[in-house]
Amino acid sequence: MPELTHSRYTLAVLDLSRSTDYYMSVLGLAMDFTAPGWSFMSRGSFRVMLGECTDAIPPQALGDHSWYGYVTVSDAAALYDEYRNAGAEFTQPLADKPWGMREFGIRTVDGHRLMFGQEL
Predict the structure, then answer these.
(1) Residue 46 and residue 115: Cα distance in Å, rounded?
(2) Closest CA to 110 of 59, 72, 54, 39
(3) Inter-residue contact 11 to 27 (CB < 8 Å)
(4) 3-class secondary-structure state, position 79
(5) Is-contact 56 48, C-beta < 8 A?
(6) Which residues pair with 108 in a beta bridge?
(7) Where are the domains of the chain?
(8) Residue range 35-69, pLDDT digits in tens
(9) Coil, strand or helix: which one is 20?
């Protein structure tokens, strides 16, 4: 059976320049390449494609449906500190959960919500 080797999140954003800057300056992603209307970025094996969609429904209007991913990390506390120092907006503080994860949540500049967790 073929193995699924990577995933890449694809997100609609209202202002590509603003969103790209956020993913690089706050979340620490590097620019892989661009195409008209798109930014392709990564950090380790985490990959995201931002596509400018000026007429998209803002994620804030989606309520609970603005979640887009859960990323497993090697050191949740260090990443939490990095993001706090960079000015990230947190939806959930760093905490150990009964399902065996140390995790926290953020809200991006566009209103998408993302969780980061470390296996305990």
Answers:
(1) 13
(2) 59
(3) no
(4) helix
(5) no
(6) none
(7) 9-55+66-119
(8) 999 999 999 999 999 999 999 888 888 877 778 89
(9) helix
Tokens of 67: 């979640």
Is residue 26 helix, strand or coil?
A: coil
Strand partners, 12: 51
pTM beyond 0.85: yes
Cα distance between residue 106 and residue 86, in whole Å: 12
Give which of 78, 71, 89, 77 is closest to 26, Cα–Cα. 89
Amino acid residing at 15: D
CA angle centred on 109, ends 104 and 111, rounded to 5°: 70
Q: Rounded CA gap, 83 and 88, in Å?
A: 5
Topology of the domain comprising 9-55+66-119: 2,3-Dihydroxybiphenyl 1,2-Dioxygenase; domain 1 (3.10.180)
